[in-house]
Specification:
This protein has about 375 residues and is α+β, with helices and mostly antiparallel strands. The chain is built from ten helices and 20 strands. Helix 2 (about 95-105) crosses helix 3 and helix 2 (about 95-105) runs parallel beside helix 4 (about 140-150). It starts with a strand and ends with a strand.
């Protein structure tokens, strides 16, 4: 298969010997929307800058459409990059800013004007084409940065936290526009963000990074519901992590001995779950059922087996059609549970006793 972008055993080590990116491997198909997600300093922006050519590769291969580009200058690569501050020229108007990249590439004036008009129209910027960029709103400036990057018709568009400077409402609006634009153009997008909601909403796959290494590469839902490491389980979503030791296995279902008794989850990663191995059950908030204390024990076991933990309901709060609940285990640990208000209305009350319960297929077993 021909990929738009490939990184194979890519490393980046700074001159002082500090490793920034360690053994990064990724194959990106044409038209994919890929998000790099992780805490500050994890290496995601450094990786993006290596793809763009603004940062050198210490070792490994960086390929764009089958061609090794490790030593190729940024302006020679079929990529375009949008920075968080947009890097617009304040002394130029909108049209001049968008035209700039075509001039650098030596595109004839008539052809360049046609391309500029086309992208301005697509992004709804024709009405402000002659205005200075310094007088425009954050949303308009973001669209201008997009237009300037897309007008050169890159194979890959690189975006380094481009929505970070926008307020929440505008950010959501631009997210929707960005995804629709990407689907319309069919261009490969590589997007760096520290905001989980952005990565989960926009991308086809998410690369989670930690301390320079790739922790997991998965589609958003799989990443959210099936984390493959302790870091991802703690970093993504709202998961409860229950440590224990392996007691038994039945196919993919692994039973652990835990502080709360025997509890089970699913071993999707195919880990060697031998007896007495230390592992953990990762329990997403969405996988949890909260059962009233007076529910018949036979009914509970028929649905959930041994996967129940007694708890006390600390707080109930209704937000629209969702009920948010905070519950406390007997060891003092608290977790968040949420569900549709119709499911829990009049069944539970603050201060009352209940059971946290889940089905084994909805929980993931990972290594400690």
């Amino acid at each position: 298969m021909a990929y738009d972008l490939q990184l194979t055993h890519v490393h980046k080590t700074y001159d002082n010997g500090t490793p920034a990116v360690i053994d990064f491997n990724l194959d990106v198909e044409k038209g994919e929307f890929i998000a790099f997600l992780g805490p500050s300093g994890c290496g995601k922006s450094t990786t993006l800058r290596m793809i763009s050519g603004f940062e050198s590769v210490t070792s490994g291969d960086l390929m764009i459409r089958g061609k090794r580009v490790n030593d190729q200058l940024p302006e020679k690569r079929p990529t375009s990059m949008i920075f968080q501050n947009y890097a617009l020229f304040p002394h130029m108007n909108v049209r001049q800013n968008v035209h700039f990249g075509l001039g650098v590439k030596g595109i004839p004036r008539a052809e360049a004007d046609r391309k500029v008009d086309g992208i301005l129209e697509k992004l709804g910027l024709l009405d402000i084409a002659e205005m200075p960029t310094a007088r425009l709103s954050g949303g308009q400036r973001q669209r201008i940065a997009l237009a300037r990057s897309l007008v050169v018709e890159p194979d890959i568009l690189l975006l380094d936290e481009p929505l970070g400077a926008l307020d929440a409402n505008l950010r959501k609006s631009i997210q929707n526009e960005l995804k629709l634009l990407q689907r319309d153009l069919g261009i490969t997008f590589v997007f760096v963000t520290h905001a989980q909601s952005e990565a989960l909403a926009l991308s086809d796959r998410i690369v989670v990074m930690n301390a320079g290494r790739v922790e997991q590469i998965s589609p958003p839902r799989e990443l959210y519901t099936r984390p493959s490491s302790q870091f991802v389980a703690r970093f993504i979503g709202s998961n409860t992590i229950l440590p224990g030791t392996v007691k038994s296995c039945d196919g993919e279902v692994v039973m652990l001995d835990t502080a709360f008794g025997p509890l089970a989850g699913t071993n999707r990663a195919g880990i060697d779950a031998h007896t007495d191995r230390k592992m953990s059950i990762v329990l997403p908030a969405e996988a949890v059922d909260l059962l009233p204390e007076d529910m018949p024990d036979a009914e509970i076991r028929a649905d959930f087996g041994s996967n129940t933990i007694p708890c006390t309901i600390e707080r109930l709060q209704i937000v629209g059609h969702i009920m948010n609940m905070v519950v406390r285990f007997d060891d003092g640990q608290t977790i968040n549970v949420e569900g549709h208000v119709d499911k829990y209305r009049n069944r539970l009350k603050a201060g009352g006793r209940a059971y946290v319960a889940w089905r084994s297929r909805n929980a993931t077993v990972i290594d400690q």
